[in-house]
Design a protein that fits this description.
By secondary structure, the protein is α/β, with parallel strands linked by helices. The chain has 13 helices and six strands.
Length: 285
C-alpha cells in the first residue's frame, strides 16, 4: 500500500478485507460478534471503515476467521496501525464530517448536487464565513473560524497542480439568488464560481427554476469515486446530527442515474456561465 494513502482510506480498505475474510468463512456479522463478545454494530463499523480499528481487533478477527498465513495477519495488523495515524484535518480538533474529508482527500472525482448554497469547494472566504456563522449560530467564534479554515484547506484538492480532483457541480438556481453575507459577497462569490469553472477539471451547471420538479428534489448529495479499483464509490448525504454514507452498488447506481438526470435537466456549461454572470452583474448594481 502506498505510503501517502490517508488513514480514512486505509481503514476503509482494511474493513473491506476483513469483510471478505468473514464472507469466505461463511459467517454473519452477528456470529462474529457472538464469538468475540462484542456488539454486532462494532463489527459493522469496523467493516465499513467508520470506526478506528486496533491491531488487537485485527488479531482477534483473524483468529475467528482461521487465517493461517501469518504474512496476511501481519499485513492486516500493519494496515490497522497505519490507519490510526491522523490526517491533516485532525489538527483542527473534532470535525463532524472528518470521515468525509478523508474520502474527499483521496477521491479522484466528485459529483455534487447542491440545492441551497454554493458548494464548499467553490466558496470564497467571505461566503464561507457567512455560511458557517448562519448555519451554526450557537457555536463559538473560535469553532466557526476553525470550520472555515478546514473548508478553505479542503479546496487544495481542486487547486493542486498535479492530479487535481475532477469536480462536477450542479447548482440549483436558488443557491445563486440566496443572498449570503451581502450583495458584494454574492457578487464576488459568483465571479469566483465563473473563474473556477474555466478550469478543465471543474464543471459547473445550473439547474434553472423553469425546470420545476426534478431528480434532485429530495436534497443535496455527493458521489465520490476513487482511482484504485479496490475502493468502491461512495454516496455522501450530509445530515444535521449524523451523515449517511452509501456504498452498496445498487444505492450508488441509483444516485448516479439521478445525477445524470440532473445534468440533463440543467443548463449546459456555457449557458450556466451566462446565467451566473448575469446574476453577478445584478449584485454589482
Amino acid at each position: 500500500m502506498a505510503s501517502n494513502v490517508n488513514p480514512t482510506v486505509r481503514r476503509r480498505r482494511l474493513g473491506q478485507e476483513l469483510r471478505r475474510l468473514r464472507e469466505v468463512k461463511g459467517m454473519t456479522a452477528e456470529e462474529v460478534a457472538e464469538r468475540l463478545l462484542v456488539s454486532q454494530s462494532k463489527i459493522s463499523r469496523l467493516e465499513n471503515g467508520r470506526r478506528s480499528i486496533s491491531q488487537r481487533d485485527v488479531r482477534d478477527l483473524c483468529g475467528v476467521y482461521e487465517v493461517e498465513d501469518q504474512r496476511i495477519v501481519e499485513s492486516l495488523m500493519q494496515m490497522a496501525k497505519d490507519s490510526r495515524q491522523q490526517g491533516w484535518w485532525h489538527a483542527f480538533g473534532d470535525i463532524p464530517y472528518s470521515v468525509y474529508i478523508g474520502l474527499e482527500t483521496d477521491a479522484e472525482s466528485l459529483r455534487v448536487y447542491e440545492p441551497q448554497i454554493i458548494t464548499g469547494l467553490l466558496q470564497t472566504r467571505a461566503y464561507a464565513e457567512a455560511i458557517v456563522q448562519g448555519g451554526s449560530p450557537e457555536s463559538s467564534e473560535q469553532d466557526n473560524d476553525k470550520r472555515v479554515e478546514v473548508r478553505l484547506r479542503r479546496q487544495s484538492r481542486i487547486t493542486a497542480e498535479k492530479d487535481p480532483l475532477r469536480l462536477w457541480v450542479v447548482l440549483d438556481e436558488a443557491s445563486l439568488h440566496r443572498v449570503v453575507g451581502s450583495r458584494q459577497v454574492m457578487r464576488e462569490q459568483l465571479e469566483h464560481v465563473m473563474e473556477l469553472s474555466q478550469q478543465p477539471h471543474i464543471t459547473v451547471q445550473v439547474l434553472p427554476f423553469e425546470v420545476g420538479a426534478h431528480a434532485g428534489i429530495n436534497g443535496q448529495y455527493s458521489i465520490l469515486e476513487f482511482a484504485d479499483a479496490a475502493d468502491s464509490s461512495v454516496v455522501y448525504i450530509e445530515g444535521v446530527t449524523s451523515d449517511l454514507y452509501l456504498e452498496k452498488p445498487h444505492d450508488v447506481q441509483k444516485y448516479t442515474v439521478m445525477y445524470e438526470h440532473l445534468r440533463a435537466q440543467s443548463l449546459n456549461v456555457e449557458a450556466s456561465r451566462q446565467r451566473v454572470e448575469r446574476l453577478a452583474k445584478e449584485y454589482a448594481r
